[in-house]
Each structure stands twice: as C-alpha cells, then as structure tokens.
C-alpha cells in the first residue's frame, strides 16, 4: 500500500481509490478486486442507517447504490484527503453529472497496516 515519507499511509491515494475504484466502479469483479487491495480482511463500514461487515457486503452496497442512482451517477473528491495517526478524511460530492450535486459528505477511515479497517460514511445535511 502507498505510504507517505513518515510511514503513514497515503490517505489521499487510498481514500480516492476507495471512491473511484469501489464506489464509482460498476463492474462487480473489478470492484471486489479493488476492495481486496484497499481494505483489511474483515472491514466494517458505518453508514448512517446501518453497519456493513465484510468485503463482499461493502461491494454489494456500492453496486446497489450505483444501480439505484443511474448510469451517470458518480462520486468526486472535493479536495485532497487529510489524515494522521491512522485516521483519514476525504470530503466528496456526488450526482448524475459534474454540474449537478445530489449529495455531499465525507468518508472517514481508520487505517491498519496501510489499509482501511473501518469506514464511516458521513452525509451532510441537505442544503436549504
């Protein structure tokens, strides 16, 4: 796994890879291969409404999300991720195209041995 000069994981690289290669990946085989690379053997993902355990379950959630919102829906990072001491955060936006934002939020992750062990999906309140 990529690390920074300090021995810390490369938070930006790994959290962007999670966004692009997992949550934007429509091909289930490629998505699961990315999860195997990015996540520990038995990861946990905390969504606002449930807790998801394991790589296959995370892949299923990502696939269902993409299917639910249509073929052009995608997640885009807002800025580089930040992190230290095994914890990183990436702010993102998502929508059907680059000009329409349907939701914004952050992924916060705990890293173990350079891979994501626990991932919290935090959704911003709706604007208005």
TrEMBL record:
InterPro entries: NTF2-like_dom_sf (IPR032710), SnoaL-like (IPR037401)
One Pfam family matching this protein: SnoaL_2
All residue ranges annotated as the SnoaL-like domain in the record: 22-118
Protein name (database record): Nuclear transport factor 2 family protein
Gene source species: Terrihabitans rhizophilus
């Amino acid at each position: 796994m990529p690390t920074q000069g300090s021995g810390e994981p490369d938070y930006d690289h790994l959290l962007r890879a999670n966004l692009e290669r997992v949550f934007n990946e429509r091909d289930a085989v490629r998505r699961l291969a990315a999860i195997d690379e990015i996540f520990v053997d038995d990861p946990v993902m905390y969504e606002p409404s449930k807790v998801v355990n394991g790589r296959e379950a995370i892949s299923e959630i990502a696939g269902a999300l993409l299917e639910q919102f249509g073929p052009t829906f995608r997640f885009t990072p807002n800025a580089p991720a930040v992190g230290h001491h095994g914890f990183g955060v990436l702010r993102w936006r998502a929508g059907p195209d680059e000009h329409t934002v349907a939701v914004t939020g952050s992924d916060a992750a705990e890293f173990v041995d350079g891979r994501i062990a626990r991932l919290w999906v935090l959704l911003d309140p709706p604007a208005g």
